What does this fold into?
Amino acid sequence: MPTFAAEACSLSIEGFSLAYGGKPALRDLTLQIPRHRVTAFIGPSGCGKSTLLRAINRLHDLNESARAEGRIALEGRDIHDPKLDVSELRRRVGMVFQTPNPFPMSIYENVAFGLRLQKRLPKRQRDDRIEWALSAAALWDEVKDRLHRSAWQLSGGQQQRLVIARTLAVEPEVLLLDEPASALDPISTLKIEELIRNLKSQLTLILVTHNMQQAARVSDYTAFLQQGALVEYGSTDQVFTNPRLQRTEDYITGRLS
Ligand SMILES: Nc1ncnc2c1ncn2[C@@H]1O[C@H](COP(=O)(O)OP(=O)(O)OP(=O)(O)O)[C@@H](O)[C@H]1O
It folds into this structure.
């Protein structure tokens, strides 16, 4: 199990469990997520990948039947600390979902949206931040001449990069990606993968994917979950080329779905 020195560790998950209506979805998970790396969560459908991802920015708070136990610390601070501001946590830990969900407004306003909630910036600075976020999401060149057109005119792949730009605009430290390319065509998927690899110089990324080639291509570390438990966690190289457990090998090679 990889462990990281405090200065290299973004998130530390310790004895974390979560149940929906008394039914366990995550069981006593302990793992550390390294800073400025891509970590993939893989495992069969229903094993708890999305539940774990969402727990990192406390989305389970919105579900009355969900009960969490244990600790998740971001930069050493427990995210369940009652003194912690949840909206600030969600700014620091951004999330991108499977289906691109741009708001029904212009490309510019989509990226400005979170920024406006966070703080009032003078227009010049806001424009600079929007250009920066769209560039970081590898979309600027494609949209710079039509910033005030509807976001819904973009292709699915462009919409997903716009959603990533919207998330980046508020300068998160961690980006959670829940199957971000599964609704996209192969070319758009490769663009998202390249983007993920490039973004790790700026922030920590966690990727949920069903696509084993994708996990192998973009992630540095891979955690394999089964029935809510962490089965194997290691460098992606090790997990994919020399898995410690037969169950991991069976899943990676498609013998277990
Ligand atoms: N909102 C919810 N209410 C009740 N049960 C839920 C809820 N969300 C997930 N579950 C259950 O928790 C377990 C883990 O689900 P989760 O969506 O985290 O798995 P997953 O590995 O991401 O699955 P998939 O790959 O199919 O998206 C499953 O048994 C699921 O039915």
Summary: Residues 6-102+174-250 form a domain with the Rossmann fold fold (CATH 3.40.50.300). The beta strands are 9-20, 23-34, 38-42, 66-74, 77-78, 93-96, 174-178, 204-208, 221-226, 229-235. The chain has a mean pLDDT of 95. The radius of gyration is 18 Å.
